[in-house]
Each structure stands twice: as C-alpha cells, then as structure tokens.
UniProtKB/TrEMBL annotation:
SUPFAM superfamilies linked to this entry: (Trans)glycosidases (SSF51445)
Keywords: Carbohydrate metabolism, Glycosidase, Hydrolase, Polysaccharide degradation, Signal, Xylan degradation
Species classification: unclassified sequences, environmental samples
Entry GO MF terms: endo-1,4-beta-xylanase activity
The protein, known as: endo-1,4-beta-xylanase
Annotated GH10 domain residues: 68-366
UniProt source species: uncultured microorganism
Stored InterPro entries: GH, GH10, GH10_dom
Claim: Transmembrane helix is one of the keywords in the record: no
Reactions mediated catalytically: Endohydrolysis of (1->4)-beta-D-xylosidic linkages in xylans
E.C. code: 3.2.1.8
Length: 421
C-alpha cells in the first residue's frame, strides 16, 4: 500500500514536471526593439488544464427564469462556480432536452453556452446517447426509427452548438447499455441490435461528420477490464476516440491513491488523453458498500457533517494531486457544486446555502493558489528578457499602460517572443 504522505510529495514534483513551463520571454515594442530594463507586470489569466464542474444551475439564471431568493441563490451559485472553474459541463439528457418530440430545448442552452463562453469557459455537452434519462417517446418507434432518430439527434446538437460546445460525451455507459434491465428504453434496444462497438462507431461517425473539430469522448463509470476491452475493440475497429472519460462517483468512499493510480495506469496504456468526467466525494455518511447500483440508495436526509467536511477536504486534495501528477489526465470535472444534487448526497463543494465547505477552500488554494501565478512585478534584462515560471495557461504582460498575451502551452523550457503593438 502506498504511503499517502510520501506519495503526495512525489505528486507535487510530478505536477511541476508535467504541468509547468520555464519560459525565457523576450519583449519587443511595436518597432521590434527589445524592451531592455523595463518594469513589467505578469499575471495569470487561465489554466490550460481543464478544471471543471457541471453547471446546470446556470441555465435558469442566464434565461432569467428566477426571481426573489431563488434568483439571489443562483447568482451566488454562479459566482462560486466561475470563481473556481474554467470548464463547464452542460446538460443534454435527451428526455429533458426534448421531452416532446420535435421541441428541443436548443435556444435556452445556446443562450447559456454563449454566456459561459463569454466568461472564458470551455464547454462540454453531456450526453448525446445514453439509455438513462432518454426520451420516453422513443418507445413509440420501431428500432430502425429509433436508430435514425438517435443519429439525427447527435447531428443536430453537435451542429447547432458548434463553436460554443466543441466537446461531447458522445456515449455514456456503453458497457452496461445493451444489458441494462431496470426498465425498457429505446437506446438499449438499438444497442442490443448494433452491439457495443457498432453503437460507438455509429454515434461517433455522426458526431464527427457534424463537427470535425469537436473533441469526442467515450464516458463510463465502469473501470473494470470490461471498459478496457470495449476501448480496445473500438480502437482495433478503427474508431477514433479522442478522449477516454472516467467517472468516479465515490459515494461509498474515497478510492485512495493505490486504486486511483491503478485506474490511471490501466487506461493510460491506450495512449489517449483521460478526462475524469464526474467526481463525487461526500462530506457526510459514506454509502454502505453492499449497494451495487448507487441509484438504489435512498435515505430521507443525507446531511453534511463537520467531520465529513474535514475528510472531504483532505480527500479532494489527495485525489486532485494524484490525477494532476499523471501526464495522461487533461481534465477533472467535479459533479454538483452544491449539496443535495444527484441522490441528494452531501457531495457539493459548497453547502445547500452556497456557503463554501473546507473542500472548496482547499481546491481554491490549489487551483488559484499553489498552481497559480499571482500578479508579479518583473524587470527585463539588457536584452529585453525576463524569466516566467508558471503553470501552463494564458498570461497577461502589462508594460507602460499596454498589455500583451503570453501563452505557456508546452511543459519544460521555452523561448517565447511577445510583441507590444
């Protein structure tokens, strides 16, 4: 078993190795003359790494659907959300996006997407094809019609949102999809006919045709060899998967460093980027281990506790550092900013009243503290150079009332020129 404290020290070193750049930056004025011996302010604006959260609560806010206390609550929610995260997942569950056939919720989501992009967020749509929360009216159709309609739905959403939402969980939970038996649904029906690999190929082809520039994910909660086998079969069949999505709903307790590293190493062998797409760590009672389907756990109340909040904060730091230390991981998405979301769990980084928990503060201290460069005054040398060491991302250089962007987009030692026009 890995020594937790010792590993975190190792993780810090690996994070610096994989996530930072040491850049020699040469500054020029508009006449291409080096800015020698000049005072410059360097400020970080954005991480390259995607620190994400689902942002479903922004939809009613942006569309002005709330008043009074509810409006105040969601405004605070959005402030907490955007104060920490640079990547937001938006909801495209078919049964809610198009509960009545031919009447999709496109305009509300487009308005929300524009609002978030204007605030610097990278967006992902979740999800285009899933057997759960799918449209009930599919059951009125034949299997051939269901397939045709599902393909059209993929093309429509990916096309309509291109330029705003250019990242998609194309299929969700394909491992269980053809054998799902809790209730009848149209997606399981067609997956049984096509098979898992055929289903993935069909939906990825439709999404790729609609937006060739989109980043397409296969996403699953199943971290067993079954998911590995599915990915292997898809790749051998020539299907281009851009990113492997891994869910990590830890209602039954933190995985710990050893399991996390095992999952990372097993899925990194495919040579594809990994996104941890749905992270849950609770700050209350841990769900009993004998629950097989998390959806089966029902309690009248599931409160957060001071002891649980302290545990959650410690686990958040451990999990994020373990993931960030692995070079294959390119995104981490927390699931439910506030308590009382999925399953009613105390799984938020903030409480039901939007007050930050220790976990929110701990994560903020990493993303906007330990892994961030606060504004710093520097002076160029006689050849207009200065040394900027920081996490990969976007920076602003300010000199003599002017600003210019600086991009640290590759780890290690860099030489960069910046021109003030």
């Amino acid at each position: 078993m890995t020594d937790h404290s010792a590993y975190l020290a190792t993780a810090d070193a690996l994070i610096r190795e994989h996530r930072t750049a040491q850049a020699t930056v040469t500054l020029f004025d508009r006449d291409r003359i080096p800015l020698a011996n000049q005072q410059v302010t360097v400020s970080q604006r954005k991480h390259k790494f995607l620190f994400g959260c689902n942002g479903f609560g922004t939809v009613p806010l942006v569309n002005h659907e709330l008043e009074g206390p509810a409006k105040v609550w969601v405004e605070t929610y959005a402030e907490r959300l955007l104060g920490l995260f640079n990547a937001i997942t938006l909801p495209f569950y078919w049964g809610r996006f198009e509960p009545k056939r031919g009447h999709p919720d496109t305009q509300r989501l487009l308005k929300t997407a524009r609002w978030l992009v204007e605030r610097g967020c990278v967006l992902k749509g979740h999800t285009l094809c899933w057997h759960t929360v799918t449209a009930d009216w599919l059951l009125e159709l034949s299997n051939a019609e269901i397939l045709e309609t599902q393909i059209a739905r993929v093309r429509r959403e990916v096309s309509d949102f291109a330029g705003l939402v250019d990242m998609w969980d194309v299929l969700n939970e394909v491992v269980i999809m053809p054998v799902f038996d809790k209730y009848d649904n149209g997606i399981t029906r067609i997956c049984q006919e096509l098979g898992r690999v055929g289903m993935v190929r069909t939906m990825f082809d439709a999404a790729r045709a609609a937006n060739p520039a989109a980043v397409l994910l296969l996403n699953d909660f199943d971290t067993s060899p079954d998911y590995e086998a599915l990915i292997q079969e898809c790749l051998e069949a020539g299907i281009k998967i851009d990113v492997i999505g891994i869910q990590s709903h830890m209602h039954q307790g933190y995985w710990g460093v050893d399991k996390t590293l095992d999952v990372l190493d097993r899925f990194a062998r495919f040579g594809l980027p990994i996104h941890f797409t749905e992270i849950t760590l609770v700050s209350g009672q841990i769900m009993p281990p004998d629950i097989v389907d998390l959806n089966d756990y029902r309690v009248s109340e599931w409160p957060t506790t001071p002891e649980g909040e302290a545990r959650q904060a410690s686990e958040v730091v451990s999990f994020y550092k373990t993931l960030l230390a692995h070079p294959a991981v390119e995104a981490i998405t927390w699931w439910d900013l506030t308590d009382g979301g999925w399953l009613g769990a105390p799984a938020g980084l903030v409480r039901r009243d939007n007050s930050p928990k220790p976990a929110y503060e701990a994560l903020s201290n990493l993303i906007k503290g330990e892994w961030w460069l606060d504004p710093v005054e520097m002076v160029t040398d006689g050849e207009g150079r200065l040394q900027v060491n920081g996490f990969l991302g976007e920076y602003t250089l300010a000199w003599a009332g002017r600003t210019a962007p600086l991009y640290l987009d590759k780890k290690g030692t860099l030489s960069v020129e910046v021109h003030f026009d």
